[in-house]
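C-alpha coordinates for chain A. Residues wanted.
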Protein backbone atom coordinates (compact mmCIF):
# COMPACT_ATOMS: atom_id res chain seq x y z
CA UNK A 1 0.00 0.00 0.00
CA UNK A 2 1.40 3.37 -1.03
CA UNK A 3 0.61 6.62 0.80
CA UNK A 4 0.60 9.97 -0.99
CA UNK A 5 0.23 13.48 0.40
CA UNK A 6 0.80 15.62 -2.68
CA UNK A 7 -1.26 15.91 -5.84
CA UNK A 8 1.77 15.59 -8.11
CA UNK A 9 3.00 12.38 -6.48
CA UNK A 10 -0.30 10.51 -6.65
CA UNK A 11 -0.95 11.67 -10.21
CA UNK A 12 2.46 10.36 -11.26
CA UNK A 13 1.66 6.99 -9.69
CA UNK A 14 -1.84 6.80 -11.16
CA UNK A 15 -0.67 7.72 -14.67
CA UNK A 16 0.63 4.15 -14.93
CA UNK A 17 -2.69 2.54 -13.95
CA UNK A 18 -5.12 1.30 -16.58
CA UNK A 19 -8.25 1.24 -14.39
CA UNK A 20 -8.91 3.17 -11.18
CA UNK A 21 -11.64 2.77 -8.56
CA UNK A 22 -11.93 5.62 -6.06
CA UNK A 23 -13.49 5.78 -2.60
CA UNK A 24 -13.45 9.29 -1.05
CA UNK A 25 -13.66 9.36 2.77
CA UNK A 26 -13.09 11.67 5.72
CA UNK A 27 -11.44 8.92 7.73
CA UNK A 28 -12.75 7.35 10.94
CA UNK A 29 -13.36 4.29 8.80
CA UNK A 30 -15.88 1.57 9.62
CA UNK A 31 -17.33 -1.52 7.97
CA UNK A 32 -19.48 0.65 5.72
CA UNK A 33 -16.36 2.16 4.13
CA UNK A 34 -14.70 -1.23 3.92
CA UNK A 35 -17.74 -2.64 2.10
CA UNK A 36 -17.17 0.00 -0.62
CA UNK A 37 -13.56 -1.13 -0.98
CA UNK A 38 -14.59 -4.79 -1.23
CA UNK A 39 -17.15 -3.94 -3.91
CA UNK A 40 -14.47 -2.11 -5.88
CA UNK A 41 -12.01 -5.00 -5.94
CA UNK A 42 -11.45 -6.76 -9.21
CA UNK A 43 -8.37 -7.88 -11.15
CA UNK A 44 -6.14 -5.14 -12.59
CA UNK A 45 -8.12 -2.36 -10.87
CA UNK A 46 -6.15 0.11 -8.77
CA UNK A 47 -8.06 0.89 -5.55
CA UNK A 48 -7.56 4.46 -4.29
CA UNK A 49 -8.95 5.75 -0.99
CA UNK A 50 -8.71 9.39 0.08
CA UNK A 51 -8.78 10.60 3.67
CA UNK A 52 -9.58 14.28 3.92
CA UNK A 53 -11.73 16.00 6.55
CA UNK A 54 -13.49 18.59 4.43
CA UNK A 55 -14.16 21.75 6.43
CA UNK A 56 -16.22 23.18 3.55
CA UNK A 57 -19.07 20.76 4.27
CA UNK A 58 -19.34 21.68 7.96
CA UNK A 59 -21.63 24.61 8.69
CA UNK A 60 -20.81 24.22 12.40
CA UNK A 61 -17.17 24.86 13.37
CA UNK A 62 -17.58 22.80 16.55
CA UNK A 63 -18.81 19.86 14.48
CA UNK A 64 -15.71 20.11 12.29
CA UNK A 65 -13.39 20.35 15.30
CA UNK A 66 -14.96 17.33 17.00
CA UNK A 67 -14.92 15.05 13.95
CA UNK A 68 -13.02 11.87 15.01
CA UNK A 69 -9.45 11.60 13.72
CA UNK A 70 -8.28 7.98 13.63
CA UNK A 71 -5.59 7.97 10.94
CA UNK A 72 -3.40 5.21 12.42
CA UNK A 73 -6.37 2.86 12.72
CA UNK A 74 -7.67 3.87 9.28
CA UNK A 75 -4.36 3.02 7.62
CA UNK A 76 -4.32 -0.36 9.34
CA UNK A 77 -7.81 -1.10 8.01
CA UNK A 78 -6.79 -0.07 4.49
CA UNK A 79 -3.62 -2.13 4.61
CA UNK A 80 -5.63 -5.20 5.64
CA UNK A 81 -7.99 -4.59 2.71
CA UNK A 82 -5.00 -4.49 0.31
CA UNK A 83 -5.79 -0.98 -0.93
CA UNK A 84 -3.27 0.12 -3.55
CA UNK A 85 -3.03 3.84 -2.79
CA UNK A 86 -4.13 6.21 -0.04
CA UNK A 87 -4.31 9.95 -0.70
CA UNK A 88 -4.03 12.09 2.45
CA UNK A 89 -3.77 15.71 1.31
CA UNK A 90 -3.46 18.69 3.64
CA UNK A 91 -5.89 21.60 3.54
CA UNK A 92 -3.11 23.63 1.94
CA UNK A 93 -2.74 21.04 -0.82
CA UNK A 94 -6.50 21.09 -1.44
CA UNK A 95 -6.61 24.89 -1.12
CA UNK A 96 -9.72 24.82 1.07
CA UNK A 97 -8.75 27.90 3.06
CA UNK A 98 -8.38 30.17 0.04
CA UNK A 99 -10.69 28.65 -2.55
CA UNK A 100 -12.18 31.25 -4.89
CA UNK A 101 -14.76 28.92 -6.38
CA UNK A 102 -17.53 26.77 -4.93
CA UNK A 103 -19.97 24.65 -6.90
CA UNK A 104 -23.68 25.00 -6.32
CA UNK A 105 -26.88 23.19 -7.33
CA UNK A 106 -30.51 24.21 -7.70
CA UNK A 107 -33.19 21.53 -7.98
CA UNK A 108 -32.69 20.27 -4.40
CA UNK A 109 -31.52 23.49 -2.80
CA UNK A 110 -33.09 24.11 0.64
CA UNK A 111 -34.64 20.64 0.65
CA UNK A 112 -34.06 17.72 3.00
CA UNK A 113 -30.56 18.01 4.54
CA UNK A 114 -29.77 21.22 2.70
CA UNK A 115 -32.58 22.98 4.57
CA UNK A 116 -30.91 22.16 7.90
CA UNK A 117 -27.23 22.26 6.86
CA UNK A 118 -26.90 25.26 4.52
CA UNK A 119 -23.77 25.09 2.42
CA UNK A 120 -23.12 21.43 3.26
CA UNK A 121 -23.59 20.01 -0.22
CA UNK A 122 -21.77 22.90 -1.85
CA UNK A 123 -18.78 21.92 0.25
CA UNK A 124 -19.20 18.22 -0.55
CA UNK A 125 -19.45 18.57 -4.32
CA UNK A 126 -16.67 21.15 -4.49
CA UNK A 127 -14.17 18.80 -2.82
CA UNK A 128 -15.40 15.61 -4.49
CA UNK A 129 -15.06 17.30 -7.87
CA UNK A 130 -11.52 18.41 -6.95
CA UNK A 131 -10.63 14.90 -5.85
CA UNK A 132 -12.05 13.38 -9.03
CA UNK A 133 -10.01 15.82 -11.10
CA UNK A 134 -6.91 14.76 -9.19
CA UNK A 135 -7.52 11.00 -9.17
CA UNK A 136 -9.36 10.75 -12.51
CA UNK A 137 -11.03 7.45 -11.63
CA UNK A 138 -13.05 5.22 -13.90
CA UNK A 139 -15.33 4.26 -11.01
CA UNK A 140 -16.49 6.23 -7.98
CA UNK A 141 -17.86 4.10 -5.14
CA UNK A 142 -20.40 5.76 -2.83
CA UNK A 143 -22.75 4.46 -0.16
CA UNK A 144 -26.52 4.81 -0.31
CA UNK A 145 -26.71 5.97 3.31
CA UNK A 146 -26.00 9.55 2.18
CA UNK A 147 -28.82 9.34 -0.34
CA UNK A 148 -29.18 13.03 -1.17
CA UNK A 149 -25.41 13.39 -1.54
CA UNK A 150 -25.34 10.36 -3.86
CA UNK A 151 -28.17 11.80 -5.95
CA UNK A 152 -26.49 15.21 -6.29
CA UNK A 153 -23.13 13.68 -7.23
CA UNK A 154 -24.76 11.48 -9.88
CA UNK A 155 -26.32 14.57 -11.42
CA UNK A 156 -23.04 16.47 -11.14
CA UNK A 157 -21.15 13.79 -13.08
CA UNK A 158 -23.80 13.74 -15.79
CA UNK A 159 -24.08 17.54 -16.01
CA UNK A 160 -20.33 18.05 -16.39
CA UNK A 161 -19.84 15.02 -18.65
CA UNK A 162 -17.41 13.28 -16.31
CA UNK A 163 -16.29 9.90 -17.73
CA UNK A 164 -16.82 8.34 -14.31
CA UNK A 165 -19.29 5.59 -13.45
CA UNK A 166 -20.81 5.98 -10.00
CA UNK A 167 -21.29 2.70 -8.19
CA UNK A 168 -23.95 2.99 -5.47
CA UNK A 169 -23.45 0.47 -2.67
CA UNK A 170 -26.24 -0.53 -0.23
CA UNK A 171 -26.05 0.77 3.33
CA UNK A 172 -24.13 -1.41 5.77
CA UNK A 173 -25.99 -1.83 9.07
CA UNK A 174 -25.39 -2.88 12.65
CA UNK A 175 -27.32 -5.89 13.96
CA UNK A 176 -29.95 -3.51 15.42
CA UNK A 177 -30.52 -1.89 12.03
CA UNK A 178 -28.54 1.30 12.70
CA UNK A 179 -26.84 2.53 9.53
CA UNK A 180 -23.07 2.45 9.98
CA UNK A 181 -21.67 5.96 10.24
CA UNK A 182 -18.56 7.73 11.45
CA UNK A 183 -20.82 9.56 13.91
CA UNK A 184 -22.12 6.44 15.62
CA UNK A 185 -19.19 6.38 18.02
CA UNK A 186 -20.36 9.73 19.40
CA UNK A 187 -23.75 8.36 20.52
CA UNK A 188 -24.02 8.33 24.31
CA UNK A 189 -24.45 4.92 25.95
CA UNK A 190 -27.74 5.94 27.54
CA UNK A 191 -29.29 5.95 24.06
CA UNK A 192 -28.18 2.39 23.20
CA UNK A 193 -31.71 1.01 23.45
CA UNK A 194 -33.15 3.76 21.25
CA UNK A 195 -30.85 3.73 18.23
CA UNK A 196 -32.87 1.06 16.39
CA UNK A 197 -35.96 3.31 16.35
CA UNK A 198 -34.87 5.24 13.25
CA UNK A 199 -34.62 2.11 11.12
CA UNK A 200 -37.81 0.70 12.62
CA UNK A 201 -39.75 3.77 11.49
CA UNK A 202 -38.32 3.45 7.98
CA UNK A 203 -39.38 -0.18 7.85
CA UNK A 204 -42.84 0.80 9.04
CA UNK A 205 -43.13 3.39 6.27
CA UNK A 206 -42.09 0.77 3.70
CA UNK A 207 -44.67 -1.65 5.08
CA UNK A 208 -47.64 0.73 5.31
CA UNK A 209 -47.17 3.19 2.42
CA UNK A 210 -49.12 1.39 -0.30
CA UNK A 211 -50.01 4.38 -2.50
CA UNK A 212 -49.16 8.06 -2.95
CA UNK A 213 -52.21 9.09 -0.92
CA UNK A 214 -50.67 7.45 2.16
CA UNK A 215 -47.48 9.51 2.12
CA UNK A 216 -48.48 12.42 4.38
CA UNK A 217 -50.02 10.03 6.90
CA UNK A 218 -46.95 7.77 7.20
CA UNK A 219 -44.59 10.77 7.32
CA UNK A 220 -46.57 12.34 10.17
CA UNK A 221 -46.82 9.09 12.11
CA UNK A 222 -43.05 8.49 11.95
CA UNK A 223 -42.34 12.11 12.92
CA UNK A 224 -44.66 11.89 15.91
CA UNK A 225 -43.34 8.48 17.04
CA UNK A 226 -39.72 9.62 17.00
CA UNK A 227 -40.54 12.91 18.72
CA UNK A 228 -42.50 11.07 21.42
CA UNK A 229 -39.46 8.84 22.01
CA UNK A 230 -37.11 11.78 22.56
CA UNK A 231 -35.67 12.37 19.09
CA UNK A 232 -35.36 15.88 17.66
CA UNK A 233 -36.55 15.33 14.10
CA UNK A 234 -35.38 17.46 11.19
CA UNK A 235 -37.52 15.72 8.61
CA UNK A 236 -39.33 12.56 7.60
CA UNK A 237 -39.96 12.57 3.87
CA UNK A 238 -41.02 10.14 1.16
CA UNK A 239 -39.61 11.09 -2.24
CA UNK A 240 -39.28 9.85 -5.79
CA UNK A 241 -36.16 7.76 -6.36
CA UNK A 242 -35.88 9.27 -9.83
CA UNK A 243 -36.03 12.98 -8.92
CA UNK A 244 -35.75 13.06 -5.11
CA UNK A 245 -38.71 15.45 -5.24
CA UNK A 246 -42.26 14.74 -4.08
CA UNK A 247 -43.55 11.82 -6.19
CA UNK A 248 -46.07 12.62 -8.89
CA UNK A 249 -48.70 10.77 -10.90
CA UNK A 250 -48.13 7.03 -10.87
CA UNK A 251 -44.54 6.87 -9.65
CA UNK A 252 -43.87 3.53 -8.02
CA UNK A 253 -40.21 3.69 -6.96
CA UNK A 254 -39.93 5.71 -3.75
CA UNK A 255 -37.43 6.36 -0.99
CA UNK A 256 -38.17 7.28 2.63
CA UNK A 257 -35.59 9.57 4.24
CA UNK A 258 -35.19 10.59 7.87
CA UNK A 259 -32.82 12.96 9.65
CA UNK A 260 -33.05 13.25 13.43
CA UNK A 261 -30.95 14.07 16.48
CA UNK A 262 -30.38 11.60 19.31
CA UNK A 263 -28.78 13.63 22.07
CA UNK A 264 -26.04 15.66 20.41
CA UNK A 265 -25.65 13.36 17.38
CA UNK A 266 -27.47 13.90 14.10
CA UNK A 267 -28.28 10.68 12.25
CA UNK A 268 -29.61 10.17 8.74
CA UNK A 269 -31.02 7.05 7.13
CA UNK A 270 -33.22 5.97 4.25
CA UNK A 271 -34.89 2.99 2.64
CA UNK A 272 -35.94 2.40 -0.96
CA UNK A 273 -39.26 0.70 -1.71
CA UNK A 274 -41.92 0.28 -4.37
CA UNK A 275 -45.69 0.69 -4.16
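Reply:
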Amino acid sequence: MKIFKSISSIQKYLSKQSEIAFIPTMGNLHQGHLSLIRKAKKPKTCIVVSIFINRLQFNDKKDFASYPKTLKQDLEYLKNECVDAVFIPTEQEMNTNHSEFKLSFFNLEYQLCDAFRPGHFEGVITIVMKLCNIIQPHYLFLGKKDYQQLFILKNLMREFCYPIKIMAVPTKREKNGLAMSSRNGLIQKKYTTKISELYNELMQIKKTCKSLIHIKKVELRAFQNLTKNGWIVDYVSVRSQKTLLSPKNNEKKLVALIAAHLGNVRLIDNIEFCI
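Residues 120-135 form the longest helix (16 residues). The chain has a mean pLDDT of 94.
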